[in-house]
Structures are given as C-alpha cells and as structure tokens.
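pls ignore typos typing on phone
G3I + seq
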Amino acid sequence: MLRPKLIALAILVCVALWLGRGMAIAAQSLLGRETAPQARHCALDRWLRLGRGPTLASLARGQDLYVGTAVNLKALGRDRQYRRQLAQEFNLVTAENDMKLERLQPRPNQFDFSQADRLMAFAADHQMAVRGHTLVWHRAVPDWLEQQDWSRAELMAILENHIKTVVGRYRGQIAAWDVVNEAIADDSTLRDTFWLRGIGPDYIEMAFRWAHEADPDALLIYNDYGGEGLNAKSDAIYDLVQSLRANAVPIHGVGLQMHVQVNAAPSPDEVAANMARLAGLGLQAQITEMDVRIRQPSGPDDADQQADIYQAMLQTCLDAENCNTFVTWGFSDRYSWVPGYFEGWGEALIFDNDYRAKPAYHSLIEVLKNYSTAAPD
Ligand code: G3I
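k done
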C-alpha cells in the first residue's frame, strides 16, 4: 500500500521541481536575463541522475577538455535514451554523416542543412561544442559531382562554393573543422582521389584557405586514420602538414582518428611521440574518431583489454601539451558503423547495445577523475 503512494509522491516532487525550474527560467527570461542552455534543458535529467556518480562531461567541465562523440541523426530523432545519454555524457558532438558533401549538397548548388541544423540546435540546447566533419573527402561525394567531367577551374569553383557556404553558415559555432579527410593513402602517397585528379595536389591548401576565409576563428584540422603512432603513414601526414605550415596555410591541427582493433592498437608511447612532434610544428593533435573493435564472438578478456586501450589513449591525450579533444565514433554499440563494415567485428564502443556502461566507459571515468583532481581550476 505504502509503495504506490511513495512512487506517486516521488513523481509529484519531480514534476514540481521541473515546473518550478521552468517558472524560474521563464521569470529570468522575462527579466531579460540569460540562462545557460544546459541548465534549461537537462534540469530534470540531472536531478534524476543525482547520486549516480559523475559523467564524462561533468568530469571534463571546467578543464578545457572536450569529450565528444559522433552522432547518428536518425537515432537522435527517434531514441530517447540515446538523446539522454548523449546529453549527459559528452560536451562535444560531431555528425557521423550529416555534414558530408553528399548530405549537405545533394544537388548542384542546392544545399540541405536540415539534419546538420538539428545537430547544431541539440548542441546549443545542451551547451555542447561541435566539430564539423568533413569538407573534403574522397567518399560521400554525390553522383552529380563525381560522375561528370569538370575542368580544373569548374571543380575549384564547386569546392570553394561548398566550403564557403557550409563553413560560412556555421561561422562562429564550430570549434574545429575536419577540412581535409584521409588525403594520404595506405601506401603513404597522396591518395588518388577525384579531387587530386581534378585539381591537383594543391586542392588541400586551397581547402584550408577557403575554410579560413569563411570562419577565421575555427580550428582547421587535417584528419586521417592509421597514422596515430609512428609509421610510414604518420610520417607522410607529418610531412604534408609541415609543408602546409611552411607555406603559411591556415592549418591548426591533425586529427588522429583511432579506429583500432583490440589486439592491434598503436602503442601509447608512439602516439605520445607523434603528438609531440606535431606540437613541435605548432599544431594541435586531436583524437577524433576512436573505437576499438573486437572480433566476434568476443572472448573473456576482450572487454578489459579494450578498456585498457581507451584508458591509455585518453591518458596520452591529457598528458600531451597539444591535445584537448577526445572523440569516440558513436557511443553505443547499437549504432556503431563497425559490424556493417568489418564483417565479424563489433562491440567497439563504450556502452553496449542496451546502453549499459562497459569497462571501457569506467576506465575513461577513472582517468578523468584523476585528471580533474590533479588539474588546476
Ligand atoms: O542513410 C542512408 C540510407 O538512407 C540508405 O538507404 C542506405 C543505403 O546504402 O545508406 C544510408 O547511408 C549510409 C550511411 O553510412 C548511414 O548509415 C551510407 O550508405 C554509408 O556509406 C555511410 O557510411 C558511413 C561512412 O563513413 C561513409 O560516409 C559510416 O556511417 C560512417 O561511420 C563512416 O565514418 C567515417 C568517417 O566519416 C571518416 N573516417 C572513417 C569513418 C569510418 O569509416
């Protein structure tokens, strides 16, 4: 008998708190005072979380640290738990697909910002930063663009228009743009792409210059995979960005994607050395797309080994003078790109299919707890 009454009472208190908060916010806005969007949106969520311990975002708060994730806009629209966990755990988002060229410019000079705008609105409502991904890539190029013969001048005009339209639209709202993505091939030469063939190798520096003109305050990043540690590919990336710097191209950092396997992750020491040499060029290093895939069915030690890799990479970023951004490529295995792309692999993220925290999540929390007590305010 007592239990239903207690539950009813708890619900009443909860609704009263929520309404009270809403009225306070309304009163504040009538008085013309600004309220932090995060406070506005998450009051109930946070109240419900009381006593459940810190989140990644709460530990990163005030530490000049971005803990982010790629967002699947379909999941954002239809999955309440996805939205809630995203808002609670992260202070930065990036679009997994919806800021790519084929999505933003599906027809010549006809832009569709509907999905990207939804992400921007979510981020603003929850006081999250946004990484823009990505302006120039050899994939996600629409047929109208790829399947026609363009002159060099035409292709340059299309690229300039795309970059300036997109970057200009979100000017001042994007913390960092992945300007050029994966321009180095696996054999460490410049990748043979539609852009390279049509414009020549200087498409890379043009892209950075156009992005900078459109948003002079955005950090402009070269983003790639497979060059996280020290190897031929990271050497090639280093050479590329060094020559861009030498030519006064506005580039501010390198994104280390970090799509790795549980049994073949780069050594943290090498990642640290790679970050340090980028710092020597005056460049930031960001971990931009981390996931750690496990061969299926997983073995008994895989989850712990995966946790160790996540932990080591976050620690490496925090220890580096030039790394303040740690982004995972999704957060729940429910929406990970991995099983669809690497047959027989999965479980790559920090929450499982049902949003339960995995050892990898707890390992990140531990790193951040130590960091937030050690770091000055
Ligand atoms: O949404 C459409 C759907 O309407 C259509 O019916 C279906 C048919 O193929 O395609 C759906 O789009 C797919 C999209 O993912 C959303 O699921 C695309 O085909 C598919 O190519 C796309 O794959 C994405 C891939 O980039 C290519 O753009 C992955 O989700 C995304 O995780 C992956 O992300 C990349 C980064 O951008 C760059 N670094 C590597 C990383 C992993 O490959």
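Residues 17-43 have pLDDT under 50 and may be disordered. The pocket of G3I is lined by residues 96-97, 100, 139-140, 181, 225, 257, 289, 337 (CB under 6 Å). more later
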